[in-house]
């Protein structure tokens, strides 16, 4: 079992769910039934590595509170079960994404001919700009 799998399992076990009334269209049913799910997870309880935590915090954005809780609200579907599954899938995606390190950026290398062409172009542009200005009559 990888680190990501363990973290997801811990997160899904530690997540707290509450059901709230969904907003938007739905007629009388939307006012009677609490189908939207609000999922809360204390990220500090997961004991993530610092770089994974930083990536998770960046990915969560404003869904992460100052107290270190991720709050996800799922209200896409009409049933509690579907919204609950949706919230859990989104949480799993966030955590798995945090475990994927970004690819290192390879520096571009410019050869001598490319450098000379760049300098030539810069000089010609500078000459064009130097020739601008007031015309002496």
Can you describe what's shown?
By secondary structure, the protein is α+β, with helices and mostly antiparallel strands. The protein has helices at 3-14, 28-32, 50-60, 80-99, 112-130, and strands at 16-20, 36-42, 69-74. The protein has a single domain, classed as Double Stranded RNA Binding Domain (2-Layer Sandwich), CATH 3.30.160.20. A 3-stranded antiparallel beta sheet has the order 1-2-3, covered by helices on one side. Helix 1 (3-14) packs antiparallel against helix 4 and helix 3 packs across helix 4. The N and C termini lie far apart (82 Å).
Short characterization:
The chain is built from five helices and three strands. With 137 residues, the chain is α+β, with helices and mostly antiparallel strands. A three-stranded antiparallel beta sheet has the order 1-2-3, with helices on one face.
């Amino acid at each position: 079992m990888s680190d990501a799998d363990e973290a997801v399992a811990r997160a899904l076990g530690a997540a707290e769910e509450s059901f709230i009334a969904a907003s938007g269209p739905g007629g009388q049913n939307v006012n009677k039934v609490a189908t939207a799910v609000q999922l809360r997870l204390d990220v500090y309880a997961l004991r993530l590595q610092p770089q994974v935590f930083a990536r998770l915090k960046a990915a969560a954005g404003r869904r992460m509170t100052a107290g270190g809780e991720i709050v996800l609200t799922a209200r896409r579907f009409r049933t509690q079960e579907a919204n609950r599954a949706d919230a859990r899938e989104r949480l799993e995606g966030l955590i798995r994404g945090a475990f994927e390190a970004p690819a290192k950026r390879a520096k571009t290398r410019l050869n001598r001919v490319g450098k000379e062409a760049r300098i030539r172009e810069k000089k010609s542009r500078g000459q064009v700009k130097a020739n601008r200005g007031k015309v002496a009559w």
